[in-house]
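Review session, final week

We close the course with one last complete record, chosen because it touches almost every idea we covered. It is Cobalt ECF transporter T component CbiQ, a protein from Halorubellus litoreus with 270 residues. Go through it on your own first, then we will talk.
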Amino acid sequence: MTTLSNHVPDPRLITAFAERRDGPLHRVNPWTKVGVVGALVLAVTVFDRLVLLAGLYGTVLVVYGLAGLPYRRLAGWYTLPALFLVSVAVPLAFLEPGTPIGGALGTPLGDLSVTWAGLTLFGELSCRSLTVVTFALTASMTTKYTDVAYLLGRLLPRPIDQIALLTYRFTFVMLETLEDLVKAALARGANFSEFWSNKRLYARILGMTMLSAIEQSERLVKSMEARGYDGDITLYGDVSRPPRHELLVVAGSYAAVVGYAALAVYGAGL
């Protein structure tokens, strides 16, 4: 399957992996995945040591591979988290006090240097963000659309769940429209290799995409109203309760994180 960019997750490719593959994680109950996501978010918030965060990230990477998902795609999709790290974590690494590593970097604002504490902070922020991103992609690439729609309907209040479902469905239409515009521009000799020299072309494509989105959304609303849509997309399907061993895994994950937090608080109080 072709994608517009190797650096942005393509929902069509994610859906294809979820619907057509049958790896070990595909057979895990969707409610279990939701519980593990919550435990991971809590863990990356509570853990304050680089060794623990790196171990957690390594575990998630192993799970990603065991699910039969491609590491090459994942490396390209790390571009957006990397932009976050460069814009947020790198400045914090320079501002963290401590023992400098190597020489200072001269700037108009003064000398800047990376300290061991700053390097540790950068590693912690990297592991935190990449852990959550990796498992979120893993869960979305191993959970079928009907299960995702059911979970959204149960977890999100109305009308937020309806907005999320319609946005998800309409994303595929917009991607096809954007691909058609890009192909048409390439057929006319356009060059997308340099952004700043082709910024007007990018602006025209974006404008055409927005206009097409407005027109198609209006047609979609009229067609749905003609079919009796009254603000509720009925979801046919059901996600059963997780089996006992999966419940034990989720409960154990939360217990481990809460136990670590309790020990950290108790140790700080001594």
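Two points worth writing down before the exam:
The chain has a mean pLDDT of 82.
The CA atoms of residues 99 and 116 lie 6 Å apart.
Good luck, everyone.
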